[in-house]
Design goal:
single chain; mainly alpha; 3 domains; 11 helices; 3 strands
């Protein structure tokens, strides 16, 4: 019944669009953030035939947006909006507006008359990682495990050239489920990534779990989200980017079915055999296993830096990437 209603709605919309007299100057516009599910009939000539992509702003655009929202705020002399624009690749206009709002609230809570750079940087952190949850108290064992986990991520990132810079490492819980976090922020807008860079991302994601195994003899549930992200990257390398030596330079991404207002029951149908699906799984596992072994060797070599970094983090709760780099140089 619901499917019939959707079909009737679509057909009526198409009839109304085709009924316009081109001489009366009516221009029909629409917006969506899911263009892939639109029925092809809507996109034919004479209908929604011109598509304009409104992408996320680049650095110049982000700076302009920040300046617009900062007009209503008293900024301190150290409030470098250009620096904040450089720290926020991929942020939407709403995210940038939220940064100014959060920074203003922080300044008020600190009894400051102006918003300074510390408030803006803390606001970026809040947007990326969520609010601090200092009432979420970890026991000693959990806190120690989280410290090694986060330093593991950071050590791997600092060991691979081209990784996004480490801004901060923290064991203060944030957001809904993060018990600690390693804040990496790119310094520029990126539109392409190489196979090596994707493998390095997987390695950094695995660093936390492997650090736990190296120090405590086994991993915890804290690496769940890291494993999810690592697996997604490896799947994209195999299925979308043709980066599998075994399967070759082909794309095996699911064949999308563009149906108007798809239901939850709608399924994406793969255009490959069960044997190929098994090979995809094997290749995904191989990519992750290779990075696992690489990171395991790296952290074993850096075990002293890992231990000292975790001790400093336990003592201070928050350290910078440069702090950890200094520890690495000592060892």
């Amino acid at each position: 019944m619901a499917h019939e209603e959707r079909e009737q709605t679509l057909n009526q919309l198409l009839v109304e669009m085709d009924g316009f007299d081109p001489r009366i100057g009516v221009i029909l516009m629409a917006a969506t953030n899911r263009p892939e599910i639109l029925d092809p009939a809507l996109l034919r000539a004479g209908r929604f035939d011109r598509q304009v992509l409104v992408d996320r702003p680049d650095k110049i655009g982000r700076l302009a947006i920040l300046r617009v929202h900062a007009k209503q705020v008293a900024l301190g002399s150290d409030a470098d909006l250009e620096l904040i624009a450089g720290m926020t690749p991929g942020f939407s206009g709403a995210d940038l507006a939220n940064i100014i709002n959060e920074a203003t609230l922080l300044a008020v809570r600190r009894d400051k008359e102006q918003v300074g750079l510390p408030e803006l940087q803390e606001a970026v952190e809040r947007v990326v990682a969520g609010l601090e949850k200092k009432n979420r108290v970890l026991n000693k064992m959990e806190k120690e495990r989280v410290a090694y986990h986060e330093v593991g991520h950071a050590l791997v990132a600092l060991s691979f050239p081209g990784s996004d810079p480490i801004q901060k490492i923290s064991i203060i819980p944030r957001g809904i489920s993060a018990l600690g976090y390693t804040l990496q922020l790119p310094t520029e807008d990126r539109f392409l990534m190489t196979k090596t860079e994707l493998e390095n991302k997987i390695a950094v994601l695995l660093g936390g779990r492997i650090a736990e195994e190296l120090i405590f003899g086994e991993a915890s549930t804290g690496a769940q989200n890291d494993l999810l992200k690592a697996t997604d990257i490896a799947k994209s390398m195999v299925k979308s980017y043709g980066m599998s030596d075994k399967l070759g330079t082909v794309t095996l991404e699911h064949e999308r079915q563009p149906l108007f207002m798809q239901t939850q029951r709608s399924q994406e149908k793969g255009d490959y055999s069960e044997e190929t699906a098994r090979e995809i799984d094997c290749e995904v596992r191989r990519i992750i296993d290779e990075q696992y072994e690489c990171v395991k060797r790296l952290l074993a070599e850096q075990k002293r830096a890992l231990t000292e970094g975790a001790k400093v983090l336990l003592d201070q709760e928050v350290i910078s990437g440069s702090d950890l780099q200094a520890i690495m140089k000592k060892h």
